[in-house]
Amino acid sequence: MVSHARWKLARDEKVAQGIAEDPEVERRREEISLAFDLGQAVYDRRTALGISQTELARRAGMTQPQVSKLELGGTVPTVPLLARLARAMEAMFRMELFGSSIRVTFTGLDGPAPEEADPEPPSAERASAPATEAEADADAEADAEAEADAEADAEADAERAAATG
């Protein structure tokens, strides 16, 4: 059996030779893939409902640019934000992990319930009460971060327009 130190050294040598990919690059690639998959799931459910990004933003307590950035895979939403989006789209959010693959979906509440799960999560009332304040704080922080990103993007666009002007 190879020790972790030897494995890491062998891995680093392969990376240096161009044979293997840096673990950080692999991790970032997986994160980007997840962001795109989440964005596509939001887009699919929103369009199935026939609502605009603006309407989804209003329902979820977000801004339209935040919804747009999310749908384009520009950000990985927090769990509290995913919960807000699921409520706003009257859907159940599912994330299935199998091997190195991840599948995410927002399924309408009126659709068939999964066989392995109850239609209503157990102890939902108990779990939601204490988490409300923490969820609100996390949501506010995520919203502020997304809004700051949108403002920075707008400023960069304005600078580019002025420079090419």
Q: What is the number of E strands? A: 2
What about the largest sheet? 2 strands, antiparallel
Tell me the span between the first and last alpha carbons: 63 Å
The helical percent reads 55-70%
Element order: H for helix, E for strand:
HHHHHEEH
Widest sheet, order of strands: 1-2
Structural class: mainly alpha
Low-confidence stretches: 112-136
Radius of gyration equals 20 Å
Strand proportion: 5-15%
Specify the overall morphology: extended
Which key terms come to mind for this protein?
single chain, 165 residues, mainly alpha, two-stranded antiparallel ribbon, 6 helices, 2 strands, 65% helix, 10% strand
Could you please describe the fold and organization of this structure?
- The protein has 165 residues and is mainly α.
- Helices cover 65% and strands 10% of the residues.
- The chain has a two-stranded antiparallel ribbon with strand order 1-2.
- A hairpin with a 2-residue loop joins strand 1 (91-98) and strand 2.
How would you summarize what this structure contains?
65% of the residues lie in helices and 10% in strands.
Blueprint (SSEs and pairs):
Blueprint (H helix, E strand, L loop, with lengths): L3 H14 L5 H27 L3 H8 L3 H8 L7 H10 L2 E8 L2 E8 L15 H41 L1
Antiparallel strand pairs: 1-2
Helix pairs in contact: 3-4
